[in-house]
Automatic annotation (TrEMBL):
<feature type="transmembrane region" description="Helical">
    <location>
        <begin position="65"/>
        <end position="89"/>
    </location>
</feature>
<protein>
    <recommendedName>
        <fullName>Epithelial membrane protein 3</fullName>
    </recommendedName>
</protein>
<dbReference type="InterPro" id="IPR050579">
    <property type="entry name" value="PMP-22/EMP/MP20-like"/>
</dbReference>
<keyword id="KW-0472">Membrane</keyword>
<comment type="similarity">
    <text>Belongs to the PMP-22/EMP/MP20 family.</text>
</comment>
<dbReference type="InterPro" id="IPR004031">
    <property type="entry name" value="PMP22/EMP/MP20/Claudin"/>
</dbReference>
<feature type="transmembrane region" description="Helical">
    <location>
        <begin position="141"/>
        <end position="161"/>
    </location>
</feature>
<dbReference type="GO" id="GO:0005886">
    <property type="term" value="C:plasma membrane"/>
</dbReference>
<dbReference type="Pfam" id="PF00822">
    <property type="entry name" value="PMP22_Claudin"/>
</dbReference>
<dbReference type="InterPro" id="IPR004032">
    <property type="entry name" value="PMP22_EMP_MP20"/>
</dbReference>
<keyword id="KW-0812">Transmembrane</keyword>
<keyword id="KW-1133">Transmembrane helix</keyword>
<feature type="transmembrane region" description="Helical">
    <location>
        <begin position="96"/>
        <end position="121"/>
    </location>
</feature>
Amino acid sequence: MAILLIFITLLHLFTMALLFIATMDKSWWVWSSTEKSDIWYNCRLDNETETWLCASLEETEWLQAVQVLMVLSAVFCSISFLIFLAQLFIMSKGGLFYLTGVCQAFAGLTTLTAILIYTLHNKEILQGPRKLSSGHFSYCFILAWLCVPLLMWSGIMYIYLRKRE
């Protein structure tokens, strides 16, 4: 039982770290090695100073939906971890971690929804003079996709997990 608790805790922390990186890092869409975009900023590398110059993206309804859903997903995942820790110490023997599992599953669903919106409406989100055909999705987008099955799987594991002595 202790090994299972350690595994599920490490899985939760790993997934939470991936989710925070996917939400906050600057690489959802890449046009070139010197120009990229995320859900917050468009950035380009200034070759003279070797620094990234970033400007806020133009606010659209689709972009705001993606931003809100990714932040909500990170919040659900964090709350789920706190609930798990509380249930671990407070819950009586034989209890199930339903609330933790439901919060984790909601985190997975909100991440999936954000990614689908970004995928289907990236033309509206990434407005500008550049063509989308000259760019591609980047590692933060892939990390967000990786988080979806991990969040859903851990949510299901929490629902079936029983507290034992």
